[in-house]
Write a structure and sequence with these properties.
The chain is mainly alpha-helical. The protein contains 14 helices and 5 strands. It is globular, with a radius of gyration of 25 Å.
């Protein structure tokens, strides 16, 4: 083989290797859910900023630097859950770079224990949008408009699926199978199914048309197509910005989880429902309502919610039934 041929072959192999390296990085990023990855990047940026301001190295970081950073977070009012997540992010960044995690050092562990003990580790629970409050929330939606039809379908379907906001936002029309008695929704990827094996959830048709998720989705799909029902692509789409006095135009862009959360906050606020609501309020609302409904078992709920952890599911059930069969009522004849 001539010298020129050898050089050409070497360059081709180098290019191929560089391509493989880039693809391997992409696969590495795909191993982590997008929301988790964004949180991880934000955590590291916060730590790096702290280190720059104090003239310290962020990678590899000294244990005392990490301990001081966690102390700074605690003193500035960050939640214990946030500090714990940032500890994981810092530990992972060191492990990926081939360094020993400073988070494992006794100095850092002691500081974390002290923060948990001082500030408590109980997480703030968002308010559940229960079946009782759901009709009131829907009254805040103008279902005569195209956007209103979309919003109603999102609320009712997310509730019926006990869906996470990211799961509902990621749905495509192809994931919906209509049947005579309802519809079957294929959730292709979720927080507990990062490999995308998917699972099917049944949504029955309800006699109350105003609360029926099947009817709401049917009406949205028919209206969104402008006379021709949607057959493929994103199920729930973004409305493009329009000029003053102009009707907003539906785009082909898929909504994201933040849009679902914003919608829940908007309709509950407009409806005057008190509480601290989020996208998770629909998932917790379904579980809370189901848990307090006679004849519904934990297995029934789990089949819809997709919980792999029974103890985690039971935390919702316990909250729903915290006043049910309370000994004090039996002791002093309280309300049942």
């Amino acid at each position: 083989m001539g010298q020129l041929a050898k050089v050409t072959t070497k360059k081709a192999n180098l290019t191929k290797r560089e391509t493989l390296s880039e693809r391997s990085k992409e696969y590495g990023r795909a191993a982590t859910a997008e929301n988790s990855r964004l949180a991880y990047e934000a955590d590291l940026k916060s730590f790096q900023t702290f280190c720059v301001e104090h003239g310290e190295l962020a990678l590899p970081a000294l244990p005392q630097t990490v301990a001081d950073y966690f102390t700074y977070l605690a003193e500035t009012g960050k939640a214990v859950a946030t500090i714990k997540r940032r500890a994981v992010s810092i530990g992972q960044s060191h492990a990926l770079a081939g360094y020993e995690s400073p988070v494992k050092h006794p100095v850092v562990r002691k500081v974390l224990q002290g923060i948990k003990r001082t500030h408590g580790s109980a997480q703030h629970k968002k308010t559940a949008l229960t079946g009782e409050a759901l009709p009131t929330a829907l009254l805040a939606i103008d279902t005569c408009s195209l956007m209103g039809k979309r919003d109603k379908a999102i609320i009712l379907l997310a509730f019926a699926l006990a869906g996470r906001r990211s799961e509902v936002a990621a749905l495509n029309v192809e994931d919906i199978e209509f049947r005579s008695t309802g519809l079957v929704v294929t959730l292709r990827k979720s927080k507990t199914d990062q490999e995308g094996q998917g699972r099917e959830v049944g949504v029955p048709r309800l006699p109350h048309e105003g609360l029926c998720p099947v009817r709401a989705v049917e009406e949205w799909i028919a209206a969104a197509g402008g006379g021709t029902p949607l057959t493929h692509g994103p199920l729930f789409r973004v409305f493009a910005l329009a000029g003053k006095g102009q009707e907003q135009q539906l785009s082909e862009k898929q909504i994201d989880g933040r849009a679902v959360a914003a919608l829940v906050k908007r309709v509950t606020s407009k409806a005057g429902i008190k509480g601290d609501f989020s996208g998770h309020s629909l998932r917790s609302g379904f579980i809370t309502t189901a848990a307090s409904t006679k004849g519904v078992t934990e297995g029934d709920i789990q089949a819809v919610s997709g919980h792999r952890s029974v103890p985690q599911l039971r935390s919702y059930v316990q909250r729903a039934n915290v006043l049910k069969d309370c000994p004090l009522s039996a002791m002093f004849g309280g309300a049942t």
